Structures are given as structure tokens and as C-alpha cells.
Amino acid sequence: MILVLTRTYFPDGTNGKLECEGKLICNTIELPWKNNEKRVSCIPEGKYFIRKRYSQKFKWHLEIIDVQNRSYILFHPANNALKELNGCIAPVTKLSGPGLGLMSRKAFEKLKIHVYRAIDQKGSVELLITSNL
Questions:
Q1: Which of 73, 90, 128, 131 is deepest in the core (most CB within 10 A)?
Q2: Which CATH number among 2.40.440, 1.10.10, 1.10.1740, 1.10.150 corresponds to the domain 2-131?
Q3: What pLDDT shows up at residue 32?
Q4: Domain boundaries, the chain
Q5: Name one Pfam family in it (predicted).
Q6: For the whole prediction, is pTM greater than 0.85?
């Protein structure tokens, strides 16, 4: 399965649209682009793989692997990129401003079910990040 994340960049955050085979799964929020600096920037555009991951803080969630010069880049719930993210991607049901969204937990559960099913059936999920220029 291939997920396509199409981003729009703003000074205060990055908003995205996450789709699979042309169908919208959810919107996303991230930190603004700041040259891939750890903890303050979204990750570079490119092709990545997603895997299941468990932690005490987020329980079962999703990890984006092999991000250049970065580690533990996750998909997890958050509604405010600047306050709640350190480089990760937060699925949201509705965008409410640059780097801001609503009903993140609902969107995250929808994404997680979709991705976990694909991993269990096909073994891999690819994430392609592009921009909306």
C-alpha cells in the first residue's frame, strides 16, 4: 500500500492531506519546514516506510523509518503542531489553521486501522511525501 501525503507549508506549521489510491484518509499537521532540524522541523519530502510501534506514552502507533538524520518520527495524535509535536506527523479530522487541527484521536484511529490492516495483509506500507506547489 502507498500513502501519499501532500503538504502545504506555512511559517507556523505544515498542513497536509493523506490519501490512499486517491481517497482521503485524513488531514495532517506538522511543524514548519526548518531544514530538517531535529525537534523543530517537519521531515524532508521523500519516500519512507511505516511500521507498527509500541511505547508507554503512545501505546500502539506508527513509526516512519529511515528518515535522514532523524529517529522516532511517529504518527500520533496532536491538535497543535508547535505545542505537541517534535517532528512527528499528527493525523487530524479537520484543519483549523497552519499546524492546527481538530479531532486528532479520531483521525489517528482511522489511519491506524487502515495501516495495520495493510501491514498484516501485505507486509509493508510506503509513505510518499510531496508538496502542493
A1: 90
A2: 2.40.440
A3: 98
A4: 2-131
A5: DUF5675
A6: yes
